[in-house]
Amino acid sequence: MTKDEFLSELRKRLKKLPESEQANALAYYEEYLQEAGPAGEQAAIAALGSPAQVASAIIGDYAIKQVDAEKDTAQKKDFGPLKTLWIVVLAVIASPIALPLAAAFVVVLVALLITVFTLYLTLFVSAIAVVAISIVSIVVAVIGLFVAPPKAALLLGLGLMGIAAGTALFIFSVWISRLTIQGITWLFAKLLKRKGDQA
After folding, report:
1. Which has the closest alpha carbon to 60: 14, 1, 125?
2. Predicted structure pTM score
């Protein structure tokens, strides 16, 4: 998308705002894209997002300014709150892409966290089950030592190997869980720091 296409689409989406607000917003984004220059134009447009997202943010900011202005002024007009409500409705309608994308992102993130949690829970339960079965195998081997010594020795060996494998699986589960929690904590800290730097 070129600078002219971006500004044209943005102009269409800002039609419901007053002329002065439209002009201010368009002048700001035109200057922003001019400063990026032809070489950085595409990167600047990508950083801004789609014209629909930018228009939604502009209309939302305007609605907030209107609410603040109405609170500050002592004179109340009959149509003031309705006009603000109308602008908020327009802001919601102007963002047909941003809201579903945000909802989809949250759903995917929650599904991913549930999947990871389920995987680690499965590892823990498997480790405990292997150790439990191995202990039962050792008990049966000790009891069967007098009836069938070769089979009992085999069961005893398998039981000991099972305890070793179950313990190793449990230690691996704890290690990988800690590593994942540290990674998720680091990622969220980095995202929150980036949001704080932008604000």
Report:
1. 14
2. 0.44
